Amino acid sequence: MLSFNVLNVENLKNRVAVVAAGIVSPLGSGLEETRHSLRRATDCVTPVSSFDVSHCRCKTAAQIPDQRLLARRQKNRKNARLHRASHMMIAALAELLERDPGFRPEVTVIGTTSGGMSFGENYYRALHRQENLRRSPEWIANYPPQKPVLDAQSEFGISAPCFVIANACASGTNAIGRAFESVRSGKNERVLTGGYDALSELVFVGFDSLQAATPEKCRPFDRNRSGMVLGEGAALLALENLQSAQKRGAEILGEIIGYGISTDNHHLTQPDPSGSGPRRAMEQALESAACAADQVDYINAHGTATPFNDAAEGKAILELFGRVPVSSTKSMIGHSLGAAGAIEAVICLLALQSQFLPPNINFRETDPDLALNIVANESRDAKIDVALSNSFGFGGTNASVLIRKAVA
Amino acid sequence: MSARIAGMGWVTPLGRGVDEVWARLLRGEEAAAQIIPGPDGTRSYQGFLVPKEASNNLPPHPRLRRASAISRFAAAAGLDALAQAKSGNLKIEMESLALVFAVSNGGVAYTKRFYHGIVESGAQSASPLLFPETVFNAPASHLAAILGINGATYTIVGDGAVGILGIKMASELLETGAANHCLVVAAEEADWLLCDAYHKWRLLKSSTPLEPFFDPPRGAILSEGAGAVLLSAEGNVKIDSISPGGNFSHQRDAVEIVNRILQDLHDQAACIVASANGTFVDLAEREAIRQESPQSIVYSPKSALGESVGASALWQVIVAACALGGKQLPPMLHAARNTGLRFPGREAEVGPAAIVSSCGLNQQAAGLRLST
Description:
heterodimer; A: 12-stranded mixed sheet; B: alpha/beta; two-stranded antiparallel ribbon; 10 helices
C-alpha cells in the first residue's frame, strides 16, 4: 500500500459526521425528491434550452428548470442580479439549514469548475457585438467562482472563510475530502462543504469539441457507450465532529470515513489507460479509513460514459473490488462537473439511509472487457453499510471518498 | 508543527528571480507600464507585463508546448522555488510533495480565444486544443506533470486573498502529515479583457502610476506573473500564524474584516506588507492599521509591481520574507502623504516579524504572520 497522503495516525482522533445536507439537481429539489427520483430511475436529460446547440454534436443536457430554481426566491433587484449558480447554492444551503438550524460552519470548502461562466459569456458577447453593456458591472461582479458561495453564506448570515477548490470534475469530491480531513484532524469542528456548477455554453461546446459529449443516450460502462452529457446542480454537506454533533443532539445522516487523492500525469484530458490514478485514489481512501476493499458495498462511479474514462475506472474497480455493485448516476443527471462529487456523495448518503442501490440507466450490453456488477437500469434494495464515491477530472486529478451508514 | 518557507520563486514585470526582483525593489525601481491594445475601436489600457525572457529557460517538457502564459509563469516560479530549496540542501522526495495552485482569473487569454471562435463562427469552430487550457487547474496539471507529482494537487480560486488561503491549505497538508513538503504557486496573466472588466467595475485607472492610500482611491493597474513558496518543516522563515479571515458583503465593510485579521495576527513590532492597490482596499487597510497597529511600518509592493490579483498575496509573502531576511523594506512609491501610516524610511529597520494583509477585490480577505 502507498504511504503518501495518508494522515498521521495520531492526527486521526475524530470521527466525521454528516449532520445535514441540501441538494438541487435535475433529479429534484431536496433530499426527498432526489431519493424518489433515484428510486424511479428518472432520466433527466432533455434538449438544451438555454443556448444554441444547433452546431454541436451533442444537443442534450440534464438541466434544472429556472422556474423550479427561482420559485421560492423573492423577486427583487438583488436576486435578479445573482447568477443561477448562486440561486442553486442558496437553495441547497436553505435545505441544509432547515434540517439543522444549529449548524454554523467555521470554514467552508466548496468545489466548482466554472463559477458564473454564463455571465462572462454575456459580457464577451455584448462586447463583441458592441451591444449595451449597462449590465456589465453586475456580470463581472457575479462571475467569480467564490461569489455563489459567498451569496449563499450571506443569505443566511454566515461569514466563514471560503476555500473554493477548482480541481476540474473532481472538485466536489476534493472539497469534501479536504473538509473531512479538516474535521478529522481536529483543525475544525464544523465545516460546510459540497460543490456547484451551472450549465454554460463555453463548457458545453468545449466538451462537444473534444467529442467527449454524446449525441446519443449517456450509457456509462455499456459496451456501446459513446460519451457524456452535461448536467448542473449544487449539493452541500454539513460535516461535524461526531462527538460534538452527538452532544448537541444533531441528526447523523452518515459518516465520512476515508478520502484519497492522486494525480495522473498521463495527459491533460485523458486518464492513464492502466487505471493507476483512480486506483491510487481509491486505495488511499480505503487506507485512510482503515477499511478493507471487501467492506465496500456500493460504488458510485465517476462513470462519465466516455470510452477511455470508463475503461480506466472500470479496470481499477475490478482490480480492487471485484464484483461489488457499481452504478454511475450520471446516466440520469449528466455530469455536473464541480457539483458532481457533492451530488454523488449525497446520493450515496440517501442510498445508505434507505438501503438501496441507485441505478445506472440506459445500460444495454455488458462491455466484455469490463466484467463489472452494474446496477443496470433499475434501483435495487440492498444491505449497504459503506459506499465509495469517485470523481476524476481534467488535469489528471482523482479523488475518492468513503461514506458509512449512520449507526443508530 | 509550524510550516517554514524553504524556497521561493518570483516571476514579475520587474523580472524573474527573488534576488533580482528584490534588489530592484530596494533600489526604488518600478515596472514599466505597457499598452495593452484592445479590439478595433475600443480603448487600450496600461498594464505591467512580464518581460518575455522571464519565462524562458523552462524545461523542454511537452506539456509546455501549447501552454498559456499563466502556465509558463507558474512553472517558472515553481521550479525556481524548488531549485532554491534544493540549493539549501533540503531533500525533497517527489512522492511526498504536494502542490497547491492559487489563482483568480485563470487562463483568460486562451478562454477568450476559445469563446471568440464560438461567438464569431459558431460552435463548430471551437478548438479542442484550446478548451483544456481554459480549465482553472491546467497550470497545476502541467506543473505536476513536469515535476512528477502524483499525489495531492489542489487548485484553489478566489480573489486577491487566495494565495493566503493556498498557504493555509498547504500548511494543513503538512501539519496532518498528508505531505512532507508543499509547493504553493500562484499565478495570473494580464489581458485586455480583464483590464476592461476591472475598468467597468470602476477599479482600474487608465495610466500609471499606481498610487496607494489616496482618499478617494485613484484606481489600480493590472499586472501579471507568479509567485511560489515551498513549505516544509525546515527553512529560514517561519509561518507563525495564518488568519483565513472571512468575507465582506460591501466594500465599506472590508475594514471590519481587515481589522479582525490584524487582531488575529497581532504584533505591534511587526511590519505590515499591505495589499493596497489604489482601490477601496487601501481605505480599509489604512483604517484598520491605524486602529490596530499604528506603529507598524507599512509597505505595499503594488505601486512597483501592479495588481496581479491571484498572484498578489504570494508576492506580498515573498516581499515579507525578503524583508525579514534583509531587515529592510523598499521605499514606498507614489503613496499619499498624511495618511497616518508609517512608510519605510532610512531609519526604519524591520524587526523579527512581518504581517501580510491581503484584502481582495471580490469580498475575501486573509492574512498571515512570518518571523525569522
